[in-house]
């Protein structure tokens, strides 16, 4: 995965307009000079990487007839990965391109009873099968011809453009030190020559140089763009590997969330319904003994036990609603969110505009997302009113919760919204929070639509 962070603005701030147009400021911008330096240094770096890659690969292939060929090839791949790390660092410093490193080589675990030497051989085998390592070798081979072309074009364009543009400033050097009236553009053996020495020719040369100076940064940026593609495409993780990493991370979040939910349910059962039912069993036992001695007192105890049964049933209903409300399964998000809004301590307006019901899993995630957001509104916002909206846009389900509270909500680490953002990310969702100090707060969640 590659991130170009050269010219991005901070979120929530509008970019300030420049007084100087981009075409005029490009020749003196830091970005242009960094990219030009990258193209100049690419040639010697590419020569070193090419020489190492080709020499070691040919040596390893030639030695395959012996037992040395395989470890030499593995060492070549390991060295290529190291050179790739240097190239990613150079691209990060000069191109402002942040390319994630490919995943580490993971050898297969040794089976029980296998000799310790198998660890090294399993690492060698894993390295030889690693596609990212071979892409580093391919980069070392392909980058040299491109680096030669990019160096030649960028240096020639840069040198010619600035030399022509500055010609009026140094034209005096030619008659004083070179013994000729100006820059020579043509000459032959018969003594005929053409010099740029008249005021018109000097001015025209400077004007042409100015046009080339203004065009050179865009040529350099185009050449550097190809390097960006090569670095991100060959030296970074593949899209499949990046997606697998995201899925593994998301699976960890889902497992942690499920474990936390199970602990919460166990705690609520233990401290709530279970404790109440245990006390109820004791009360019923006492009432049974009391009925023989004092029927009226026994009846009162049975009546109290009946009230405890109702409370226990209500707690179990609330717990079941927290796991998955029956109204959501039976009637969908609209009625379920209306019921949820009615129980909130802040007056809430709910509006659901969905052409159909999404998949049950997405429906449940959407419901509990709104539940968590309304819980935050009740506990922290000091709001007078809130509004919940759900609608579908393309293949996304959008949820928006707004309140007129004091604001200040964020997804910083440790907050409830941070955990909610992680849970949504695990299923391909997104959480955006707009909550300036003083309010209002708008939280927008996106989920994939799966019908």
Summarize the structure in words.
The protein is of the alpha+beta class. It folds into three domains: about 15-100 and about 115-235, no CATH class; about 240-325, Single alpha-helices involved in coiled-coils or other helix-helix interfaces (Up-down Bundle), CATH 1.20.5; about 325-450, Heat Shock Protein 90. The chain is about 65% helix and about 10% strand. It contains 14 helices and nine strands.
Write the layout of secondary structure elements.
Blueprint: E1 2-4, H1 22-25, H2 30-62, H3 69-94, E2 97-99, H4 118-128, H5 131-165, H6 167-170, H7 173-178, E3 183-187, E4 193-196, H8 199-234, H9 239-293, H10 295-323, H11 326-331, H12 333-343, E5 348-353, H13 360-381, E6 386-393, E7 396-403, H14 416-426, E8 430-434, E9 441-448
Parallel strand pairs: 5-6
Antiparallel strand pairs: 1-2, 3-4, 6-7, 7-9, 8-9
The number of helices is 14
Order of helices and strands: EHHHEHHHHEEHHHHHEHEEHEE
Mean pLDDT: 78
- Radius of gyration from the alpha-carbon trace, in angstroms: 36 Å
Count of DSSP E strands? 9
Tally of discrete structural domains: 3
The largest sheet, given as strand count, sense and whether it forms a barrel, is: 5 strands, mixed
Which spans have pLDDT < 50 for at least 5 consecutive residues?
A: 1-15, 111-118
Global structural class? alpha+beta
Ends apart, CA distance between termini: 30 Å
Q: What share of the residues lie within helices?
A: 55-70%
**Proportion of β residues?**
5-15%
Main-sheet strand order equals: 5-6-7-9-8
Principal-axis shape equals elongated
């Amino acid at each position: 995965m590659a991130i170009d962070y050269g010219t991005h603005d901070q979120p929530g701030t509008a970019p300030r307009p420049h007084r100087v147009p981009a075409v005029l400021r490009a020749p003196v911008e830091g970005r242009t000079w960094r990219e030009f330096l990258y193209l100049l240094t690419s040639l010697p770096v590419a020569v070193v990487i090419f020489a190492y890659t080709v020499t070691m690969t040919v040596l390893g292939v030639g030695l395959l007839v012996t037992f040395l060929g395989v470890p030499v090839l593995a060492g070549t791949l390991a060295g290529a990965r190291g050179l790739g790390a240097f190239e990613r660092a150079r691209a990060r410093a000069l191109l402002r391109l942040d390319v994630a490193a490919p995943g580490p080589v993971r050898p297969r675990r040794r089976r029980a009873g296998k000799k310790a030497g198998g660890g090294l051989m399993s690492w060698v085998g894993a390295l030889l099968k690693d596609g990212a390592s071979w892409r580093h070798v391919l980069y070392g081979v392909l980058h040299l011809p491109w680096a030669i072309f990019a160096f030649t074009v960028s240096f020639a364009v840069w040198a010619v453009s600035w030399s022509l543009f500055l010609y009026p400033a140094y034209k005096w050097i030619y008659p004083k030190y070179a013994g000729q009236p100006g820059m020579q553009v043509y000459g032959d053996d018969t003594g005929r020559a053409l010099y740029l020495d008249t005021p018109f020719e000097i001015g025209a040369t400077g004007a042409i140089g100015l046009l080339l100076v203004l065009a050179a940064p865009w040529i350099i940026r185009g050449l550097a763009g190809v390097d960006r593609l090569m670095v991100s495409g060959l030296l970074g993780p593949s899209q499949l590997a990046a997606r697998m990493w995201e899925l593994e991370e998301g699976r960890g979040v889902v497992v942690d969330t499920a474990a936390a939910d199970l602990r919460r349910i166990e705690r609520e059962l233990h401290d709530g319904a279970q404790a109440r039912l245990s006390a109820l069993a004791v009360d019923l036992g006492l009432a049974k003994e009391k009925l023989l001695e004092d029927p009226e007192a026994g009846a009162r105890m049975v009546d109290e036990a009946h009230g405890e049964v109702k409370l226990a049933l209500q707690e179990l209903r609330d717990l079941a609603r927290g796991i998955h409300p029956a109204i959501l399964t039976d009637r969908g998000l609209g009625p379920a969110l209306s019921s949820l809004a009615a129980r909130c301590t802040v007056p809430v307006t709910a509006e659901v505009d969905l052409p159909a019901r999404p998949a049950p899993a997405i429906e449940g995630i959407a419901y509990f997302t709104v539940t968590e957001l309304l819980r935050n509104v009740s506990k922290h916002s000091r709001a007078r009113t809130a509004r919940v909206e759900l609608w579908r846009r393309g293949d996304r389900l959008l949820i928006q919760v707004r309140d007129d509270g004091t604001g200040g909500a964020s997804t910083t680490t440790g907050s409830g919204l941070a955990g909610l953002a992680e849970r949504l990310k695990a299923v391909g969702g997104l959480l955006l929070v707009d909550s300036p100090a003083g309010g209002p707060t708008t939280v927008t969640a996106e989920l994939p639509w799966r019908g």
